[in-house]
């Protein structure tokens, strides 16, 4: 690509050269952040062994912290270090956090017996929490600085380029989330462009000035609450006794925008669940796309792919087309439509969840127990269970549910025999009926949850009179003694070949597996070893594989991404355009603060609401956002757009005119004093003359 450089003004195609370094920095930084965040909830669930609600809660606590620390970053940048140094210093903290997080995932550090499981989980939990805190401090601290620092590079005549910058900036955020690279690359690129940046000097602790001014206005208004005092046009005008009128005007602008921010957290409540609830939803789905197999966390890449596609389409096609239709599609109207699209996305997620729930097994409650029967003999057996019709075995296809305790059932064929089995609460069991009914009965505990990470739980039951060995390249089931079962082994999806042998005899059994299933393979005593034993093995499907395809999540990702483009990209531009010159980072921090509040809302719902059905939770969130969308549309209708630069210029002009008036008055006063002084002097000389004559 050939670019035309203008070295005098340091511009490329009308854009400041420094912008390209900022854009690349943001692109690389997002590589690091989103690469870690994409697998975070799965790390909590599968490595730290937390349940879904706990994993969701800690995930959103971390995300909320990432969007709370921008307030600290804004204070440091605006009042102490400046945006450039703040980005550099907190980036070091960020990198240390990423390293700490990576070390916490090395299970060999505490895996003394080398069984693949850490022996001191507390160490890994503490280390990961420290790492996440440092990451939140680093990435959150630089968040309000990078966007505002980029906006500072443009001059007044580059308004169009500034608007384009925010779209490209958001493209880089999502491009970074699509790929992965070391975070140190982003820092080096950012530092290389140091000499080309416009570095605005810190203008004092503006956040403290704002808080003090607001506090004084409230206090002064309370002191003058009596009706005898005249009303002010705005309650902030009560601060005029102590603070500069320009500062008060700037605070009014900020408060006007912050008032609009009140309903915004609900959008982020829904949006950030694509990294938690939606990822957990994908663990119960089929990710086989033919030539491509998608893992649950990889479904999140649909979002940045759509972002990279939709942002240019929106900017160059959709928005201009709406404008040509004569519709005034203002930023706040775009944000309203974005919220509506996010609500539709969660309705789609609820519909997908309903389909998933139809395929999930019903596990026993703490007061229930489930039983499956497996006939290990070669002759059919008829069994009569209490409350169920008689069934003929070799194996029951489904589990039978009973209240925990002793149950009595009968074998009606080949002979009538009664048996009693003790069933423990909250457990699934398989009872093996021996070939000789009067022989020893064996029962095993079965899985009471779907296998994790989309794996398949497999075991073999030996019904032969000799020991059988079973193995496959992915797992070794070892020696299985007569009339017993192996332990469960976890295997991935795909085609597997199992080798069965006893002494010098062997055979092979082939089976293809999907995702999240559990099978019991029964080796009958009639098995004849040979080249294959495909027809001899009896298969019992304990847990069905995931059958709802992951492609069904694409519509919800499309709607949430389209909503993000209209809401978030527009919100970034809106926040910058409506912010006073010395409070842009503060208002950016306020925008990011709404993200933190949104994640805290998820945290509250996950921990306190305890909604039993996940689809109902999705519908609840969609309904809340729809209601908030209506409220926001009303607030947006009454909002008046402003030009902070023009307002500030008017105030400065007014101040200058006041200064000129003051100078003029002082000059006039000086002239009057000089006239008086001359008059006094002349009178004094006349008096002296009279005295001389006398």
UniProtKB/TrEMBL annotation:
InterPro entries: MFS_trans_sf (IPR036259), POT_fam (IPR000109), PTR2_symporter_CS (IPR018456)
UniProt-annotated location(s): Membrane
Protein keywords: Membrane, Peptide transport, Protein transport, Symport, Transmembrane, Transmembrane helix, Transport
A single GO BP: oligopeptide transport
Membrane topology type: Multi-pass membrane protein
A single MF term (Gene Ontology): symporter activity
PROSITE patterns: PTR2_1, PTR2_2
Main subcellular localisation: membrane
Transmembrane annotation, as ranges: 60-81, 87-109, 121-142, 168-190, 253-271, 305-323, 335-354, 585-606, 618-639
GO cellular component: membrane
Keyword Transport attributed: yes
Sequence similarity: Belongs to the major facilitator superfamily. Proton-dependent oligopeptide transporter (POT/PTR) (TC 2.A.17) family.
Name of protein: Solute carrier family 15 member 1a
Organism: Scophthalmus maximus (Turbot)
């Amino acid at each position: 690509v050939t670019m035309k450089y203008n070295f005098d003004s340091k511009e490329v195609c009308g854009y400041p050269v420094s912008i390209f370094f900022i854009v690349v920095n943001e692109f690389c930084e997002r590589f690091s952040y989103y690469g870690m965040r994409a697998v975070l909830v799965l790390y909590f669930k599968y490595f730290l062994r937390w349940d879904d609600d706990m994993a969701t809660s800690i995930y959103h606590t971390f995300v909320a912290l990432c969007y709370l620390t921008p307030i600290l970053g804004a204070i440091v940048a605006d009042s102490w270090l400046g945006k450039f140094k703040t980005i550099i210093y907190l980036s070091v903290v960020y990198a240390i956090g990423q390293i700490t997080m990576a070390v916490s995932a090395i299970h060999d550090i505490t895996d003394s017996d080398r069984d693949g499981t850490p022996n001191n989980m507390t160490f890994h939990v503490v280390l990961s929490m420290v790492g996440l805190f440092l990451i939140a401090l680093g990435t959150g601290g630089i968040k309000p600085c990078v966007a505002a620092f980029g906006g500072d590079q443009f001059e007044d005549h580059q308004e169009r380029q500034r608007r384009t910058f925010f779209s490209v900036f958001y493209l880089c955020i999502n491009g970074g989330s699509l790929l992965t690279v070391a975070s140190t690359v982003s820092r080096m690129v950012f530092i290389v462009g140091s000499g080309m940046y416009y570095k605005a000097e810190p203008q004092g602790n503006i956040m403290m000035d704002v808080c003090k001014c607001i506090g004084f206005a409230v206090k002064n208004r309370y002191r003058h609450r009596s009706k005898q005092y005249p009303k002010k046009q705005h309650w902030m005008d009560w601060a005029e006794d102590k603070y500069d009128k320009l500062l008060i005007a700037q605070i009014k602008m900020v408060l006007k925008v912050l008032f609009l921010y009140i309903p915004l957290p609900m959008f982020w409540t829904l949006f950030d669940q694509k990294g938690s609830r939606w990822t957990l939803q994908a663990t119960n789905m089929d990710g086989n796309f033919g030539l491509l197999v998608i893992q649950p966390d990889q479904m999140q890449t649909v979002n940045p792919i759509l972002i990279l596609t939709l942002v240019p389409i929106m900017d160059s096609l959709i928005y201009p087309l709406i404008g040509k239709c004569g519709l005034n599609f203002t930023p706040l109207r775009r944000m309203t439509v974005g919220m509506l699209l996010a609500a539709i996305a969660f309705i789609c997620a609820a519909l997908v969840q309903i389909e998933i729930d139809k395929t999930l097994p019903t596990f026993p409650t703490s007061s229930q127990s489930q039983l499956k029967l497996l006939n290990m003999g070669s002759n059919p057996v008829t069994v009569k269970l209490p409350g169920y019709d008689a069934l003929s075995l070799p194996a029951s296809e489904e589990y039978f549910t009973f209240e925990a305790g002793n149950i009595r059932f009968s074998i009606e064929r080949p002979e009538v025999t009664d048996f009693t089995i003790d069933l423990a609460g909250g457990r699934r069991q398989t009872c093996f009926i021996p070939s000789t009914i009067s022989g020893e009965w064996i029962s095993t505990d079965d899985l009471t949850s779907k296998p994790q990470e989309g794996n398949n739980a497999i075991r073999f039951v030996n019904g032969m009179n000799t020991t059988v060995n079973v193995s496959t390249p992915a797992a070794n089931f070892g020696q299985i003694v007569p009339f017993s079962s192996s332990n469960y082994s976890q295997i991935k999806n795909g085609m597997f070949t199992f080798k069965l042998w006893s002494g010098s005899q062997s055979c092979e059994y082939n089976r293809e597996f999907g995702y999240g299933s559990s099978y019991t393979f029964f080796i009958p005593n009639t098995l004849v070893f040979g080249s294959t034993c495909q027809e001899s093995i009896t298969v019992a499907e304990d847990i069905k594989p995931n059958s709802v395809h992951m492609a069904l999540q694409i519509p919800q990702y499309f709607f949430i991404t389209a909503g993000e483009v209209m809401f978030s990209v527009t919100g970034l531009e809106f926040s910058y355009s409506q912010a006073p010159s010395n409070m842009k980072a503060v208002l950016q921090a306020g925008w990011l603060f709404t993200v933190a509040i949104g994640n805290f809302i998820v945290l509250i719902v996950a921990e306190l609401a305890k909604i039993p059905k996940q689809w109902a939770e999705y519908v609840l969130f969609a309904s809340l956002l729809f209601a908030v969308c209506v409220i926001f549309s009303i607030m947006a209708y009454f909002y008046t757009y402003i030009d902070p630069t023009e307002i500030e210029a008017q105030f400065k002009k007014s101040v200058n005119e006041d200064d000129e008036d003051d100078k003029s008055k002082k000059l006039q006063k000086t002239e009057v004093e000089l006239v008086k002084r001359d008059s006094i002097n002349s009178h004094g000389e006349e008096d002296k003359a009279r005295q001389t004559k006398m």
